[in-house]
C-alpha cells in the first residue's frame, strides 16, 4: 500500500523531526539507528514521515508530544504500534534488543524515503522478539519482509 504525504503533512513531519532532533541534542542522546549514512534530523524526518504515512492510511491522529513514549501510534482498537522505516526495498523489520523492556503490541515496516512510503507489513512483538539477527552491527530483532503479516 503506497502512501504519499501532501504538502501540509510534509511540513508537519519536518517540524516534528526538527523538534525531535533539537530535544536529542539538548538531552545528549545518541542516535540508535542502524543506518550508517543517515544521522540526526534525517533519521527523525524519515521516522516522522513514516509515522504520518501510517496514520494517514488508518485515519489516526499522530503522536505530537515529544515525550518519547514507547508507542508511535495507538490504533482505534487500542493496539499499540511502533512504526519502523527503511529506504532499502528489501529491508528488514528491525528493532533493538532493549525494546523488550518497552514493547508495543505490533511493529510495522514502511519502505521508502520522505515523502513516499509503502506499508509492507507488520509483526506481533512475539513474532519479532523470537528472531535475532546480526547485520554486522550487533544482534538485533529482525524479520524479513516475507515473514511479515500483510495489512
Describe the structure.
The protein is α+β, with helices and mostly antiparallel strands. The protein has one domain. It has three helices and eight strands; from the N terminus they run E-H-H-E-E-E-E-E-H-E-E. It has helices at residues 7-27, 41-57, 125-128; strands spanning 2-4, 73-74, 80-86, 93-95, 106-113, 116-124, 132-134, 139-143. The strands form two sheets. Strands 1-6-5-3-2 form a five-stranded mixed β-sheet. A hairpin with a 4-residue loop joins strand 7 (132-134) and strand 8 (139-143). Helix 1 crosses helix 2 (41-57). It is globular, with a radius of gyration of 14 Å. The model is unreliable at 34-38 (pLDDT under 50).
Rg calculated over all Cα atoms: 14 Å
Q: Walk across the major sheet and give the strand order.
A: 1-6-5-3-2
Quaternary organisation:
single chain
Residue share in β-strands:
25-35%
Taken from the alpha-carbon principal axes, the silhouette is: globular
Order of helices and strands: EHHEEEEEHEE
First CA to last CA: what distance? 9 Å
The secondary structure category is: alpha+beta
Give the tally of structural domains.
1
Number of helices: 3
Helix content estimate: 25-40%
How many individual β-strands?
8
Uncertain stretches: 34-38
Mean pLDDT equals 90
Biggest pleated sheet: 5 strands, mixed
